[in-house]
Design brief:
The chain starts with 8 loop residues before the first strand and ends with a helix. The radius of gyration is 42 Å and the shape is elongated. It is mostly helical and about 675 residues long. It has 25 helices and 7 strands. Helix 19 packs antiparallel against helix 20, helix 22 runs antiparallel to helix 24 and helix 24 packs antiparallel against helix 25. The longest helix has about 70 residues. The strands form 2 sheets. A 5-stranded antiparallel β-sheet has the order 1-2-3-4-5, with no helix packed on it.
């Protein structure tokens, strides 16, 4: 750095502005240098003198009057500059670093994270306070739990401190009319100690990288050209980048901004994992098998103390990275999932409850992760798909749409007898999301929310069984077209959710049989209500006349098997559309660890060649065979019961005929006896 002394002569500055009354090509002479120490700043006063003006029109101009004396450490606005040198924080021994490194465990434990007074974020001690508090938070998180309010308060304070670090701090102490330029007054000894940043490193970048190299200049109405000349002479900057007072504060360097972002992200991730669900080890063990088609949701229900939906939903939202992507507040997400699970348990349904919702959600996860469907979707579409599966039967009443229509319920009147329950599920779920304490979508943009809501509505409405055959026909037509652009995402995802909703016959026999028992019990309860209301029995709702095995065989043959067949064709086409052009090598391709975060793009294990594995086919065939065997046994039992009834009815008929014969014989005897008596009387 160039050393300046009184009497030094510098190159002429650029041309002065004509309105300033200056001329070109004049040397400036450093008349006086004065340093004044004020607090943490060193005020360097530079008095610049210029030689007398030349004669104009043959006459000497009067010499300019001497500059007036300074006032309060400031020179007048005639040819002077005041340079504020910020005191080097490292000259004080690196207070912040030393305190942070030497703070022992006792000091950290003694910090009251909730009640201790915090200094203002723009004060020097705020950095020390923020560092100590963050280290204390980390220590508490390693040893146990920390209240969410405490974490939020201290992280917010740390973020405010980081945000207060400006490229130029002059605006914090300068008045609105002041303007500043940045120059370097770093001693040459320090420059020699600074490590090199490379042969091609920019000198300008070296000046701006370190906080300690920044000083501030108050121009005091000095022309712009002088300020630029001083910056180019006393620093290695080519030009001065002045930040306006109304500009948004920036970090001192890109590196500092990146470090701050990484630090906050780590704290956020630790905060999310520390303040949300603490899953029992048994639940965590079960959730590691969530990628399996035969996942047993009943075991999860038992291990989670009847909260399978809450645990599974959080696990999947976390694995897909949606919690971090859309910045879902952990406390808000927990209350939302708890409320959703409570809504599923509202009517205590045997089938349409929180376990069924968890089963559909897990099946949808299989379709997304194991068939390559997720590679075809963006983050908002994945979030909408999982959320639609989560709330597709929210607050289900345990009765069918036909029951609501026939009984004239308030829900049927509200939705005009059209998709009564499906409309209610959507309305109730979005009404729940409107509450501030449940709004996990608070950080979605308006466009993202509109896309999310539209997709959720269409998917849940498609679970209405009355639109089943129309939906299957439309998808077959769409798949028959050669144009790949004709494949509508919303209709495709609607079909996938519909298939997940009716997929229990395609699971293992133990699961399917239990689901069938639960579903029929719910149907029978509806039949009991219909009998009480004097309504005709709905199909499969009469306890005494329902053929269970035959009904399941028909359900598999005419509904489930064709639906999953079309769904498999759809997934094959999606896999061909979303497959990468060049197959990556094993080292290049992302790999999804069991129970770990899901990465994209990925070639799922559920794809063989260009086709998707269909594990449901084997289960459907096996379950159908079981139902046929049971149907034969039930038929035999019914035949035996009928024969027994016939025998019972036949014996009773014979007894009745014998009684009639006896009565007739007695009447004949009585008639004969009376006839004989009459004959005797007539003879006499």
């Amino acid at each position: 750095m160039q050393q300046v002394e009184e009497g030094d002569v510098f190159p002429p500055p650029p041309p002065f502005s004509p309105r300033r009354g200056r001329q070109d090509g004049k040397d400036l002479r450093l008349a006086n240098i004065k340093a004044i120490r004020t607090g943490d700043h060193t005020r360097i006063i530079i008095k610049v003198a210029s030689p007398p003006e030349k004669k104009k029109d043959g006459q000497d101009e009067a010499a300019p009057p001497p500059p007036p004396t300074s006032k309060n450490g400031q020179l007048s606005k005639q040819g002077s500059l005041t340079i504020l040198r910020r005191t080097n924080s490292r000259s004080h021994g690196g207070r912040s670093t030393r305190l942070s490194s030497e703070a022992d465990n006792d000091t950290l434990d003694a910090i009251d994270l909730l009640h201790d007074a915090l200094p203002a974020v723009d004060t020097p001690e705020s950095c020390e306070k923020a560092a100590l508090r963050l280290r204390s938070l980390l220590r508490h998180l390693q040893e146990g739990e920390v209240a969410a309010a405490v974490l939020q308060q201290n992280l917010q304070y740390a973020a405010d401190v980081l945000d207060s670090i400006y490229v130029d701090e002059a605006n914090r102490c300068a008045t609105p009319q002041d303007r500043a330029i940045t120059i370097s007054l770093e001693p040459s000894a320090r420059k020699a100690r600074r490590p090199a940043t490379g042969a091609g490193a920019s000198p300008r970048r070296q000046v701006g990288e370190e906080e300690d190299e920044l000083s501030e200049v108050e121009p005091d109405a000095v022309p712009q050209e002088v300020r630029e000349w001083l910056a180019s002479t006393f620093t290695r900057q080519l030009s001065t980048a002045r930040r306006r007072n109304d500009e948004k504060p920036r970090f001192r360097s890109v590196a500092n901004a990146i470090r701050a972002g990484i630090f906050v992200e780590r704290i956020y991730r630790r905060l999310s994992s520390a303040t949300f669900l603490q899953l029992p080890p048994e639940v965590t063990k079960i959730l590691k098998r969530v990628d399996d088609w035969r996942f047993d949701v009943w075991k999860l229900q038992e291990a989670s103390n009847n909260t399978p939906l809450r645990c599974l939903a959080y696990e999947l939202l976390n694995r897909y990275g949606l919690l971090h992507k859309f910045k879902m507040p952990p406390a808000t997400l927990e209350t939302f999932l708890t409320q959703v699970e409570t809504g599923y348990c509202k009517y205590k349904n045997p089938y349409h409850n929180n376990v069924h919702a968890a089963d559909v959600l897990q099946t949808m996860h299989y379709m997304l992760s194991q068939t390559g469907l997720m590679n075809w979707l963006n983050d908002v579409e994945i979030l909408a798909t999982l959320m639609a599966a989560l709330i597709h039967d929210y607050e289900h009443t345990g009765t069918t749409n036909n029951f609501h229509v026939m009984s004239g319920s308030e829900t049927a009147i509200l939705y005009n007898d059209r998709a009564v329950l499906e409309n209610h599920h959507i309305c109730a779920a979005f009404r729940l999301l409107r509450a501030e304490e449940h709004n996990v979508l608070v950080n979605l943009s308006r466009e993202e929310f509109r896309e999310f809501r539209s997709l959720v509505i269409e998917m849940v409405l498609a679970t209405d069984m009355s639109s089943h055959f129309q939906q299957i026909k439309a998808m077959k037509t769409m798949l028959s077209l050669q144009d790949s652009s004709s494949l509508d995402k919303s209709k495709a995802l609607s079909l996938v959710l519909h298939c997940c909703d009716i997929s229990h016959p395609s699971k293992s026999w133990e699961l399917h049989e239990r689901w069938t028992t639960q579903l029929l019990e719910e149907f029978f309860r509806q039949g009991d209500k219909e009998r009480e209301l004097g309504l005709p029995y709905s199909p499969l709702c009469d306890r005494n006349n329902t053929l269970v095995a035959e009904s399941q065989i028909g359900f598999i043959d005419f509904i489930v098997d064709p639906s999953l067949g079309v769904c498999g064709d759809l997934l094959d086409k999606v896999a061909s559309l979303s497959a990468p052009q060049a197959t990556p090598t094993i080292s290049e391709e992302p790999h999804n660890e069991p129970g770990g975060p899901i990465k994209r793009p990925v070639r799922p294990g559920g794809i063989v060649g260009t086709e998707v594995r269909r594990p449901w086919q084997d289960c459907l065939s096996a379950n159908k065979s079981r139902w046929k065997e049971r149907a034969m046994k039930d038929a035999e039992l019914r035949a035996e019961m009928a024969l027994r009834n016939e025998k019972v009815n036949g014996n009773s008929a014979e007894d009745e005929s014998d009684d009639v014969i006896k009565e007739e014989d007695e009447k004949e005897r009585e008639a004969e006896a009376s006839g004989q008596a009459c004959n005797e009387e007539s003879a006499e």
